[in-house]
Design a protein that fits this description.
heterodimer; A: 741 residues; Aldehyde Oxidoreductase, domain 4; 3 domains; 7-stranded mixed β-sheet; B: 155 residues; alpha+beta; Ubiquitin-like (UB roll); 2 domains; 5-stranded mixed β-sheet; 6 helices; 38% helix; binds FE2/S2 (inorganic) cluster
Chain lengths: 741, 155
């Protein structure tokens, strides 16, 4: 079963993977441009793909998932440490290096722990079982007589008889397939999982010692800036290089079709050159009028209709209902808005490429670059480095493509740093969403009919990635994909209504290159469903929590909803609140419940708001979230994710909206695309329901899904006015007040 | 040639005089604490302290700070020997991606030097022009309060 290979030793010595920790060592090693080590498997069914144990007992865990600031860097180590029975600090985690880590899919969809971590856990359990069996053979006892502590296998009855993992396997490979039946530790015996261990990267991040993507440099590297077309579809007709001839340090202007960039010895020279370069472009006005957005969405040809729930006969149930309601909901186009614009370094030479990127999907990026560059996948190595927060597919991959193209052109390593206007103007966008709902109540105030229609862009294929800007502009090979992520999720309501139908129109096009932004689709769809649920509760004269409980059967759902209400000291009564409706400043509370993607993490939230009638300004004071994601690996990590989800989504709900003219995005900085600031930030209270006997589910997104509707419902409670278009800007709130009075 | 005093050390540098201080710190001096976020004085990621004031280095030409004292995040402390504000951020686990944190810490340092016991509102106002996209605000507020307590105890 165990064989040592010479390549293995070279791999260990050559890369130092097994000895380096976090911080500078790993990227600096990578900087030396060492070739991909031979012999390390990355096959996702092999134990050796996920972990190795060195002669000194140090454990390396290899994951295709990447941290992105979420804290999985500690959570994944906890999961591995627990199954292996080694201390967490003996585990070194290697993330997102395509030569060393298995392709576990992009870091998206709140799946890093649920899928990525569970794979690693199974690899660790398989390895542990093998190690115990090896120890049994060596010690001449049966496996059942052994126990493991701190990476040492001992005979329970005679502690002097032992063998360490290092002795049993040190520097050798397991050559084992992942065994899905390898026994897992019982939750009652957990000592590491379930603990709020601190994240290993925080000390270096708060002292300037952490090497971010943006900080990474390689010898001989040049700095580049891109010059994007002034209109999305404009053609480059001329470049006047003499306009920047006087800039010291400028190396080259690169032009490939409509792809234009400047390359220089220093960043400042590149920035100045990009600013001053005179170029001429054809006119292009292919964008829709901004204020006709939802008309355009509704009129877009449908590629395909999907039905996500179809129960009973909602049509006749609606016709015979005691009371019916209908409403239309809209959700604006959003940008990712990472605080650091996208950045990448590429070294393309001799038919191979080394790329450093903060991409959430290094393995996918490798395939996309391979298609663009015409270099075989095997000759491209992508290294992940932490970037500024990434909440989906933002500009990281595009910046990597820019850098790769430029490095190939100039024959030296190139660092591309997008400017703020590149990021806001050109990152892929969260597409607009339009939803229409109809509902019917019986005489007793229960929902008897639910009918919904969604207008959202189609998905060509989830694995297509998103067309790279550089490939599009330079006319290089690329997939013509439309990929907004799995945005149909949560179009079906989270309650088992007797008659329900949800119809999703997948549209041929959408105005801006789409991608997935945190809680894609689930946020927009939950917003419409749960605000409409509130409309029905009000029509039934019912308390919003009680009304939801009336329709909810799932016991875990019932529990989160009750937990949120209890923690928020929910006052039972129907909305809107009577006395306050006419006050100049009114307070209200709203609730929302969701079962994420209708199959996993349960979340309920209560939002408390204050609305100033005259200005239309909303302040969210507090959001209480109850959260059941099954087994909690790291409670503080889950809390941090809940806080991030809530605050970011309060921002998206109250303030954020892409702006454009017929040619281009015009919200290209933080003034034109404002986000939530400290004085506006609500208190976030989280209640975690831990279920150690259940699988661990995702926490990176679900708590964002409940925020827009909870706020809309709270505003309705405060002033009796329903907000149906995100964002709830003061102008929109004032208009809604006027429309209803 | 421009002479610059950064974190107590003096450097004579051959850089274009109109270069924003940020690029001199990051590229010439390899001080990566200050970050590029917008280049427009809108986000605070690039904040450094110059003569006791929190300054946005992305819009500060290096020639204008030649005779002044610049402190970067690295000048406060290190992983081995963190400043009390940095310790407070570690204790509160006040970083997700952490990209904005330089600005949060440097702006808080300037605040706490002026006002050692700020209220919640005063901290929020001091940080009003520092943006965080990950939604770490609640922990950042907690960290600044912890830091104020910690530093208060020292004197
Ligand atoms: S980078 Fe200087 S304020 Fe944003
Ligand atoms: S922690 Fe990511 S931007 Fe603040």
């Amino acid at each position: 079963m165990v064989t040592a290979r010479t390549t293995r030793r070279e791999f260990i010595k050559g890369t130092g993977v097994l000895i380096v920790g976090f911080g500078l060592a790993e990227p600096m090693r990578a900087a030396l441009g060492q070739p991909a080590p031979a012999g390390k498997t990355v096959a996702t069914d092999e134990v050796d793909a996920f972990l190795s144990i060195a002669r000194d007992g140090g454990v390396s865990v290899f994951t295709g998932k990447v941290d992105l600031g979420t804290g999985i860097r500690v959570a994944l180590r906890q999961m591995a440490a627990e199954e292996l029975d080694v201390p967490v600090d003996r585990i070194n985690l290697v993330e997102g290096d395509t030569a060393l880590t298995p392709d576990q899919g992009p870091t998206w969809g709140s799946l890093s722990v649920q899928v990525g971590g569970v794979q690693i856990r199974q690899a660790a359990a398989t390895a542990r079982k093998a190690l115990v069996d090896m120890a049994a053979a060596r010690l001449g006892v049966s496996s059942g007589e052994l126990e493991v502590k701190f990476g040492i296998v001992r005979v329970r009855a005679d502690m002097t008889k032992s063998a360490s993992y290092a002795e049993l396997i040190g520097d050798q490979e397991f050559h084992l397939k992942l065994d899905k039946n390898a026994p897992l530790k019982k939750p009652a015996e957990y000592t590491v999982v379930g603990k709020s261990l601190p994240r290993p990267d925080v000390p270096a991040k708060v002292t300037g010692e952490h090497t971010y993507m943006h900080d990474f440099r390689v010898p001989g590297m040049l700095h580049a800036r891109v010059v994007r077309p002034p209109a999305l579809g404009a053609q480059l007709t001329g470049v006047d290089e003499s306009s920047i001839g006087s800039i010291k340090g400028l190396t080259r202007v690169v032009r490939l079709g409509n792809f234009l960039a400047v390359v220089a010895e220093t960043e400042w020279a590149a920035i100045k050159a990009a600013e001053r370069l005179k170029s001429s472009w054809s006119a292009w006005e292919g964008l829709p009028e901004m204020d006709k957005l939802y008309q355009v969405v509704r009129a877009t040809p449908v590629a395909k209709d999907e039905i996500t729930v179809n129960v009973g006969d909602p049509k006749s149930a609606l016709a015979s209902a005691a009371k019916t309601l209908a409403a239309t909901y809209e959700f604006a186009i959003h940008t990712h808005g990472s605080i650091g614009p996208s950045c990448a370094v590429a070294d393309v030479r001799d038919g191979s490429a080394t790329i450093w990127s903060a991409s959430q999907a290094p393995h996918w990026l490798r395939r996309e670059l391979s298609a663009m560059l015409g270099i075989p996948v095997a000759l491209i190595r992508v290294h992940y480095l932490d970037g500024a927060g990434c909440y989906g597919r933002n500009g990281h991959e595009d910046a990597a493509a820019d850098a790769a193209l430029l490095s190939r052109e100039v024959g030296r390593p190139v660092r591309v740093q997008w400017m703020r206007h590149d990021e806001h103007g050109w990152d892929p966008k969260g597409p607009p969403t339009l939803v229409e709902l109809k509902g019917g109540l019986d005489a007793g105030g229960s929902i008897v009919a639910w009918q919904s229609e969604f207008w959202i862009p189609k998905l060509s294929a989830i694995t297509d990635g998103v067309p790279l800007i550089a490939a599009t502009l330079a006319g290089l090979p690329r997939k013509e994909a439309i990929n907004p992520g799995n945005i149909f999720q949560n179009s079906a309501p989270s309650y088992p209504f007797p008659n329900a139908h949800a119809l999703v129109h997948r549209l041929e096009t959408t105005p801006f290159r789409p991608s997935w932004i945190r809680t894609p689709g689930r946020m927009q769809n939950t917003y419409a469903n749960e605000a409409f649920m509130d409309e029905l509760a009000a029509a039934a004269g019912a308390d919003p929590v009680e009304f939801r409980l009336r329709h909810l059967k799932d016991p875990r759902g019932v529990e989160v909803l009750k937990a949120a209400a209890t923690a928020a000291k929910w006052e039972t009564r129907a909305s809107p609140r009577k006395a306050a409706a006419k006050a100049a400043i009114a307070a209200g509370r709203g609730v929302t419940y969701v079962k994420y993607e209708n199959v996993r993490t349960y979340v309920a939230a209560v939002a408390e708001v204050v609305v100033e009638r005259r200005s239309g300004a909303i302040r969210v004071m507090r959001v209480v979230v109850a959260h059941d994601c099954g087994l909690v690996i790291n409670p503080d990590g889950v809390r941090a994710q809940i806080e991030g989800n809530v605050i970011q989504t309060v921002s998206r709900t109250l303030k954020e909206e892409l702006k454009w003219d017929r040619s281009r995005v015009t919200s290209v900085d933080w003034k034109s695309y404002p986000i939530l600031t400290f004085p506006e930030v609500p208190e976030v209270v989280s209640v975690l329901i831990n279920r150690p006997d259940q699988p661990p589910w995702g926490a990176g997104e679900p708590a964002a899904a409940v925020v827009p509707s909870a706020i809309s419902n709270a505003v309705f409670d405060a002033i009796g006015v329903r907000l149906r278009t995100v964002p709830y800007t003061p102008e929109r709130v004032r208009a809604a007040i006027l429309a209803e009075t | 040639m421009i002479t610059l005093s950064v974190n107590g050390a003096s450097h004579t540098l051959d850089v274009e005089p109109d270069t924003p201080l940020l690029y001199v710190l990051r590229d010439t001096l390899a001080l990566h604490g200050p970050k590029f976020g917008c280049g427009l004085a809108q986000c605070g990621a690039c904040t450094v302290i110059i003569d006791g004031k929190a300054i946005r280095s992305c819009v500060t030409p290096v020639e204008t700070v030649a005779s002044r004292t610049v402190t970067t995040l690295e000048g406060l402390g290190s992983v081995a020997k963190p400043h009390p504000i940095q310790t407070a951020f570690i204790e509160a686990q006040a970083a997700q991606c952490g990209y904005c944190i330089n600005g949060m810490i440097m702006t808080s340092k300037a605040l706490l030097d002026q006002n050692p016991a700020p209220s919640d509102r005063e901290i929020r106002l001091a940080l009003a022009d520092n943006l965080c996209r990950c939604g770490t605000h609640q922990r950042i507020l907690e960290a600044v309060k912890r830091a104020a307590k910690r530093m208060g105890r020292r004197f």
